[in-house]
Design goal:
4-stranded parallel beta sheet, 4-stranded mixed beta sheet, alpha/beta, 43% helix, globular
């Protein structure tokens, strides 16, 4: 088990003393399950909805990660596009690639309740000031490429507007409940699996929440990013852009963790054995 460096600027989590049995159960992959034939691409958020624990393959913001990575690549190509134009395409492209796009809201006085959407600008700032800490976590789990700088090239709306645009574009919208009680960040590197949040909760005593990043999914989700870019920039060399698409997805997701989580938050890694 490793932990987030002092570069982390969030307030959730922090130093936690997990029983060795819990750490072993998580990091051994015992709590992983095969993904469904058409998996849900959802956020890293660990809170339940009204019906209980919410399952799926997780990156920061779910389909929002595709939007952010696509805008980054378009900016790298010096091609400016309206954010709504990009966002409106993504849910359909996610479905075309065999995933269900799932955004979320939660009760919040200051935004949509999705930290990956509400805190977009702070996340971009963290990428610029905490790249060493982000790269250290990436290196430790085998993600070799992290973006040192990150540009969107366009104005991005607040989280509430983002959720509305996703709903209009055909994404499913979860409404999560309760406060953030995540005690750890779990990074899953085992292809074709998801972490059972219900099993995590049970193994931790009944109500344990964790943030989850399924970083094994970078390659297949990067294919959606590249198709988004191809629709908007047909002249782009997508073969050259593949590594940058993976790097953008990983950087944004890890930076979201650094923005939400407190320094010292445990990072449990499920490695591909």
């Amino acid at each position: 088990m490793i932990s987030l460096s002092p570069d982390a600027v969030g307030l959730i989590g922090g130093v936690a003393d997990f029983p060795a049995s819990f750490v072993q159960a998580v990091e051994s992959g015992q709590l992983n399950e095969p993904v469904a034939p058409m998996p849900r691409l959802r956020c890293m958020d660990g809170r339940p909805d009204a019906d209980g624990w919410v399952e799926g393959v997780s990156l920061a913001g779910g389909p929002l990660s595709v939007v952010i990575a696509s805008l980054h690549l378009l900016s790298q190509l010096n091609i400016n596009h309206d954010m709504v134009n990009v966002l409106s395409r993504v849910p359909t492209l996610v479905r075309n690639h065999g995933w269900i796009p799932v955004a979320h809201t939660a009760n919040s006085e200051h935004g949509s309740g999705c930290g990956a959407a509400d805190g977009l600008r702070p996340i971009i700032d963290v990428i610029h000031v905490a790249s060493h800490g982000i790269r250290t976590i990436g290196d430790s789990v085998g993600v070799e490429t992290i973006c040192d700088t990150f540009e969107l090239g366009v104005f991005f709306p607040d989280g509430r507007a983002t959720a509305m645009f996703f709903r209009t574009a055909g994404a499913e919208i979860e409404h999560l409940e309760g406060s953030h009680l995540e005690k750890a960040l779990v990074i899953n590197m085992v292809p074709g699996t998801r972490i059972s949040r219900a099993a995590i909760a049970q193994a931790g005593g009944g109500d344990t929440q964790v943030f989850v990043l399924d970083l094994w999914a970078l390659d297949p989700v990067a294919d959606i990013v590249l198709e988004t870019v191809r629709e908007l920039a047909p002249e782009a060399d997508l073969h050259v852009l593949q590594p940058e698409a993976c790097a953008a997805l990983a950087t944004y997701s890890l930076a979201a963790a650094f923005t939400l989580c407190a320094p010292g938050t445990p990072v449990l890694v499920i490695r591909n054995q």
